[in-house]
Every structure is written in C-alpha cells, then in structure tokens.
Amino acid sequence: MKKRKWPSFLLAVFAVLSLGACDEWGQMDPPAGNQIYPKLELKGEYKFEEELSPEEFTLTAYNGGEVPRIATDEFKGKVLNLNGGYARVKNPLYNVKVQTGVSITMWVKTAADNLQGAIFSFANEDNSERIFFTPNAWLHRDSLSVASEVNKPTNVSAAPFTADKWHYMALVITTKGYTLYIDGEKSSEELTSTQAGSFDYPNLVQAFPRLPYLYFGYGSPVQPKAMRIDDVKIYRNVITSKEIAVPTVTGGEEYRFPPRGTVGYFTLDKTFANSLNSSQSGELITVETQATPSAFEQDADRGMVWHQQEGWTGNANGWAYSRFDNPLKGKTLEDGLSVCMWINPPTLNWWDQIFVMNDGTSKFWFNAIGYLGYNGAGGWFDCQNNNADNALTPGKWTFVTINITTDGFAVYYDGKLKFDKDNNGAFASGDFKGYTNVLNMFTSANNFYLGYETWWKSAPALIDDIFLVTRPLTEKEIVNLYADTKKVSGGAPVSPAYAPSLVGYYPLNNSFANAVNAAQGGELITVETQATPSAFEQDATRGTIWHQQEGWTGNANGWAYTRFDNPLKGKNITEGLSVSMWLNPPKLNWWDQIFVLNDGTSKLWFNAIGYLGYNGAGGWFDCQNNNADNALTAGVWTLVTINFMPDKFEVYYNGALKFSNEKNAAFASGDFTGYNNILNMFKTANNFYFGYETWWKAAPALIDDVYFCASPLSALQAAALYNATKK
Fold first, then answer.
1. CATH architecture for segment(s) 498-725
2. How far is the CA of 381 from the CAs of 4, 85, 187, 436, 471, in angstroms?
3. pTM listed for this prediction
C-alpha cells in the first residue's frame, strides 16, 4: 500500500495557519459535539385539577378577601380562583441555568379595571427583589439596586385582556426584550432598540433563577381584582410557535350522571329515599286529613312520580307536606349550589309552594309561577312575586334548575336560562345582605320540603327526580341533565347522553315492547312446556322484571326462550355498538345462555359466568369459556354493558371495565377475521334472544332494562348509565 507524503513546506504553512486560527478565535476550539445550544425545557406546570396541597402551596388572604381555592369554571373546568387572596409556590426556575430567556404561558380571566394587580410575580424572601406582570402588560422589576419597567398603567392604560373573558397568554422574556402573545397573536413587543432600551434584559433574565418564590395574584403595589388562572407553564429558554398557539380546551366538567358534587338524588319511584345515601329519606306529614291524599302515582310520560295535592289550613281537601333529610347539610360548597327537579303543575297557584328550604328561622321557596323568594337571616328578597311572566306551563313537565352563588341566582327551564337576579319579571329586596345567607341556610338546615310552610302552604304539583348539588351546574351540565332525565311513554328515556344513539330500550315492565320504537316488541316462545313458566314478576329492588327459567331439551322444567325484534337492524354502526342490561342470576350456570344474537348462521352469546362467545361468518372466539374469574354474583343485580367496535370488544360491570379482548381471564379463537363480522350480524339479524339456541339453551336469570345503542359507550357513559339506572 502506498502512502502519500506531504511536502515539508506545506506542513509548515498548515501549522502557521492553524496557530493563526487559535489566536483569532480563542486558545482552543471546543471538541466536536460539545457545543451548547439553548434548549427549551418545561420546568414547572400547574393544572389546578385537585385541591391545593399545603405542602406545595402557601395560601394567603388579603384583608377582607378570601383564601385562593379551586373553582369550577364553565369554560375551563377546574381553575385557581383568586378573589382577594394569593398563592405562593417554589419557583421552578430557581437555580436553573436559563441561558437565553424565560417563557410563561397560562390561561387568564380577570375582572374589569385590573391594570395594576399582579397576575404573577417572582420574588425573594422579603419581596425586596421582585419581578411582576399585570393584565396591563406591565412588566416591572426592582431590587435594592435596580428598578426598571415597561407599560406602567399610568403611561399605558389600555389593557390587552378583555375583562371577564378567558385569554391564553404567552410571555417570552429574552436577553433582547419581551414579547406578549394573547390568544396566539402578538399583542406587544418591547425590544432594547425601542422605548424599553433602558431595561437591562440580560440582567432581568438572570434574575429569575435567583428568586426562590413564584406568586399568583401578588407582587405589585396594588391588590389585584378578582382573577382566575389555569394551566400555568414555566419554561427555561424561548418557546416556539407550538407553545404560543392557543391549546384546545376540553374544559368544563367531564360528563357524569349524576353531575359531580351531587349529594342528593331523589327519584321518587315509590320511595322518598336518597338513592345516593341510604341513610337519608323523607316522609309525608299530614296536618289536616286529605280527602284525596298526596301520593305516588303512575304518570303517562315519566312513569312513577310524586303527586302533591293542593292544601292549606282549612282547605276542603286538607293539607299535607313532604319532609326530606337535607343532603346538603354540613357540606362544603364550591361557589354555590344547584337544586334541580321535574315539575308539572296541574294548575297555577300563585302563592303556595312546591320546593321549600326552612330551618325554622329562614325560608327559601320556589313555586309554579316562578316565584323565588327568601326571608330570614340577612334580610329578604322576592323574585316574580305577583308576576307570572316566568310561570311554568300547567299540564306540562318542565325541568327546573336553580343555581345559587355567592353573588346571585339563575333559574333554568328545560336547560335554558329563564331568569336571574339581573333579568327577571319582578325583583324586590329589603335589608338583604347577600346570597351567602341563603347558602348558609342550605348547608345548616336539617330538612327540605315539598309544600311546607313559608307564609303559604302546598301548591298542586307533580314532581319527579330531585337533585341537590354542592356547586352550581354549568349550562352544559344543565343541558345534559335535562336530556338524561327527560322521559316519555311512562318512563322511557328520550336521548340521554349516557346512551348515545339509543335505538332500543326494553324496560320489561309487564311488556316486551321497545319503549323507543312502538313497532318493535317480543314474545315468549315455549319449546317444551314449563312447569314453572318464565314470566314477569315483582322484584324487591328493581320492581317489575323478567324472570327467565333455566331450561333445555329434556329439562324437568321444560324450556322456553324469548324473541325480540332487533333494534340495530339496518342501523349505521360503523363505529360500533353497545348492549346493556341489568342481570341477576339466581345461580351460576356455566354453559347455558342469557343474551343471544343468532341469525341462523352466526351466533353471539353472553352468560352469567361472563362467557362471551361468537361462532359463524369470519371464524370464532371464546372469552371466559370454562372460566369463572369474571362471573356475575349470584343473587346480586349487575349492570352489564358490552361494547363491540371494529377492532375490539369491552365488557363493563356496574360502569367499570371488567374485561376486554386484550384483558381477560381466558381467550381462544380460530380463523377469526375481526369484529366487523359481529357488527355485520347485529346490522342484519332480525332478532335477539334471551335463552335461545347456541349450542346451549336458557340459563336462569332475572333481567331488567335492556339498552341498545348504535354507538359504543365511553367509560364515562358506561358509569353514567349505571348511576342513572340503578335502583
């Protein structure tokens, strides 16, 4: 191998040039790969999704203000509420090498005229050195030796934030200046070449890691007005267009039934019991014997409801009222409370009452005229007194929601705002010292009432589904709750959020009919005469249900099965489907079936062992075959929800995921080409069955409330369906 030799004079030239380079650039070039580039790094994030931990946050109230707390905002969900208080945390940039800058992003909502109160600040122990920023885009830094600022309110009075509206802000502070973005757009920019030239930005940037504390709602000379902030992020170095862009807001409360904070749910289904607290209930108290008593009765639209008869002292029909344990007593409220109920007044009684809270000293009431009033500790107010502009419609069911907050009230009919403290038919007050008095009564009174003494007595009303919640519901939640509890045809849901694309509902209330499609029903088909027939019967927990008797060919009790019209036939179920039902197996039968879909070629089944199987077009699978790990509990009611999607299945028990195609106790398959085969069968089969032919026959089971949805349920919807239908 030949080696090339360099001439000596070229080597000398190369050496001279190399030395010259070092003299010009420094003593030595850094080794390749060791260059240091400014790296964007998230150092602190505050989402305010949970209660503020005292280990992390120090909370303080200004004189006359309130301690910061987590509040529920209709747009943003859970947020930090600052109303006369501030919060302190450790500075996530403390002792961090920030290099070229510092960036801060957050959501902000501020009251009007809040130009000088700090949104946030960084400070040392005694606040002798601080950096703060206000809604006026006032950036200020001072210490014992330095004082600099831009956009001081006395010089610039136009705030970039619209009052009482959420804005997403991104603030970038570099060694060359600062830039503020509001809702993704550049709002202001101050560079060393402009009027901010006197601001020592390199020194400012290096001050951030020197200051040990980060404050929200504190730092400037002026106490801030009310603010809310959320999703705060603190970055080392300079953010990009990705962080500046307005993030998607899923916001608000996640869907639940009943809504988060509900402590009272009185279904009035032949009982005064609070379905969320078995220790709480109610009673009918008769003052003067009623000729036609107040009582539970069957309503053509809503099923079982409470009928309160009109009455007062000396009334020809007598007088009785209902007393209920107050589920709000002793509870901590979040910004207020909500009371909701379905009301149908047979006639309009202008003065007598429907809902009443009365602690013996103070009284709060609402009636069918829309008359909302309070009298007691802290004065009185009347809204709609002697005014029927917002009256309910006699003979018609209306979902009434009353929100009470620290600064007012709002009343919704059927999910829409009807009136509030500022927009109403008639409002008057006397010596009224604020709505905190009303809230205090709700959390201290022992009872609430239907038709009890205010100055008046009992108005005629049909009443159903009463909810009491430890916070005011958002408008979206009110709309959802209205949809979730709207009923027709004796109690059939119409379009609940917990059952998307509902196409079949079989309440099995002495009928095989589909309550959402009168053209569809079912029948009992007897193959071998039953000694004890399958039949509707009364259950102590769920009322009228279907009792399927165990049976097969040659069984001593005979065999019968039930055939139903398939409500999913012909439906668009490309995204999937859901089948839900309440089941109570008297005993566990390992092989015979409860729910079956059979089109003559393909078969799908589910039984009390949790055995889910399919055999037909596109192969077969068995899940839980000969395995009782996920068996139902004999003698106990369980809501079973089965989702099928193009790529998977899920099975929920009582709203919680129990098993799936990926997580199960035992799974086997053969030549199985996918779950679209099952979707196709649901779309084409004429019927579904209880206890029909697979290879096995009918397992013993109590069955109630069967739902078919042309869409799979989410985990939240599965939980909501359980909460909405348990008894």
1. Sandwich (2.60)
2. 104, 30, 45, 13, 22
3. 0.69
